[in-house]
Amino acid sequence: MVAAARAIPVPETAGVRLEVDEVSHQFELEKAPLPVLWQVSFSAAPGEFVALLGPSGCGKSTLLRLLAGLDEPTSGRLIVDGAPIAGPDPARILVFQDPTLYPWRTVAGNVALGLEARGLLRSQRDRIGAALDLVGLSGFGAAYPRQLSGGMAQRAALARALVNDPRLLLLDEPLGKLDSLTRITMQAELVRLWQEAGFTALLVTHDVEEALFLAQRVVIFSDRPARIKAEVQVDLSYPRHRGDPRLADLRHDVLSLLGLGQTW
Ligand code: ADP
Ligand code: MG
User: Fold this and answer.
1) Pocket of ligand 1 from Cβ distances under 6 Å
2) What is the pLDDT of residue 8?
3) Is 163 within 8 Å of 128 (Cβ atoms)?
4) Which of 3, 49, 78, 110 could be 85's S-S partner, Cβ–Cβ 3.0 to 4.6 Å?
5) Are 132 and 222 contained in the same domain?
6) Could you tell me the residue range of the domain that residue 200 belongs to?
7) Which of 25, 61, 227, 229 to mutate to test the pocket of ligand 1 (most atoms within 8 A of CB)?
8) pLDDT class for 2, splitting at 50, 70, 90?
9) Are 127 and 255 part of one and the same domain?
10) Burial 113-130 (b: 16+ CB within 10 A, else e)
């Protein structure tokens, strides 16, 4: 990975403290309610990296949308640094599985979007190059999304998030569509970005190994409606090593908690 030539200055208080307090959510489907989250409570300390692990369709993306302020929970409270979430905020950024870059804009043009929206482009244009450096895309600012590999496009999407100095980065299976080798590389890169920038990270994944490799704590959800089954602390320093026998032990624990212990 290319080292960052210009670093984005770390904000004084980098990551938020997050509290999810008894949050339940349901969708109304043709008059019948679909309960998706059921009394979910957990917290994240400022700068903590938490993985949210659960079966497909259980409600993980819904929870991230609530935290991004794109939707309101049916009940319960979402608190960031002591204040309830009232809507979207550039300090809380959601990165999707699909990089969703505008094809008619260059990579730099895509990364510029957040600054443009906030009227900061003129004064902070140099942050675009810094964000591209940070994700290893120096020299690709003038490229178009169609000229990028899947991994590069996802890096561009990360740069587009990081240019806003997020204090809470919500990652919705951001590596889910990448090939396994790119995925391994980018897992290490995500750790590095998190360590450099200091944001609080919430990573949704259905990959046990990824959750344990990246996060300090793993919150395990049940099938829909998602409720918290367990939390697993991952007390291992970074950089971590995939062959670490303690990771293998934790993997066994987590698979058992998911009811998949017999596959060990
Ligand atoms: P996950 O990310 O864990 O795979 P989601 O949060 O995307 O799950 O979805 C949880 C459930 O909520 C799914 O059954 C999905 O079909 C349903 N759902 C998600 N968004 C909506 C919506 N806007 N309207 C109705 N149902 C939805
Ligand atoms: Mg999802």
Assistant:
1) 27, 29, 34, 36, 54, 56-62, 224
2) 55
3) yes
4) 78
5) no
6) 18-91+167-263
7) 61
8) very low
9) no
10) bbbeeeebeeebeebbbb
